[in-house]
Amino acid sequence: MSAVLEVRGLRTEFLTAAGILRAVDDISFSLSAGEIIGLVGESGSGKSVTGFSLLGLIDPPGRIAGGSVRLNGAELVGMTPGELRRRRGREIAMIFQDPIATLNPLLTVGQQMAMALAAHERVSTKAAADRCTEALARVGIPSPRARLSAYPHEFSGGMRQRVAIAIALLHRPAVIVADEPTTALDVSIQAQIVAEMRSLAREFGVAMIWISHDLAVVSGLASRILVMYAGRIVEEGPAARVLRDPRHPYTCGLLDSLPAATAPGVPLRQIPGAMPSLLALPPGCAFQPRCACATPDCAVAPEMTVERDRSWRCFHPAGVASERVAS
To answer: Boundaries of each ABC transporter domain copy (predicted)?
Structure first.
């Protein structure tokens, strides 16, 4: 299956008073129609900046310093702002973490959705209302026609996020980038939205990048997982294999820190230390100061090791799941 999105060697930098901060460092991946991939890692790992970079939403002092982002064969890196605006929403869309920041409190939901439609299409008032009603119904909002006249504050947090998803789906874009869209919601609402997103990807062939720090959420949604640390992808592969048999010590640490992986009454196994500043990364592997497996070899940055349909960036990869549990 051909890729709708191909990312090769993407680098995003920010100019700071202390020097150049490389938030995204030479990452590559591809995405096929209807596929959902999970991009996971701690806060500050570069996940959200990756998402913004894909849509060309990096403003000074930031810049895309290199690489390629091809959407249905069209190169997005280097496009003019006007060309990018014409593609955003129609071909590639983003769902942000906070729907309150996304939605205008002074406009009704119907007005905002109609404006999103009018940005790319000429439609009559009736046709716009019908499209918006259909989109709201698709994401599970009851009485969708009546809710078009409601303001954002009249919706619950989960319903506001559904509205944001409906807006992203209005033009049925080829790719949706979802930046931790369920983080602020309770577990039951998270599960509902995850199920709806999975259904929408299957029904309409929309490809999705689901950005999250929560492996539990990603495990129920994504078919493939990319683990990110200090601006780089350190492990990639089918979700079931990465979660069952992780290779990179950082992925092992993320999985070990999940409450479900720890017996009741036993303290969570946390990754020691904190992610280093992207302005002062250690030489070699950025994870080595926190890694129990680190050796002098790790003073040199490891290249990606590729094994069939998965890869990892480590000199001392973990073994099979049974060996890791036994240890």
So the answer is: 5-255
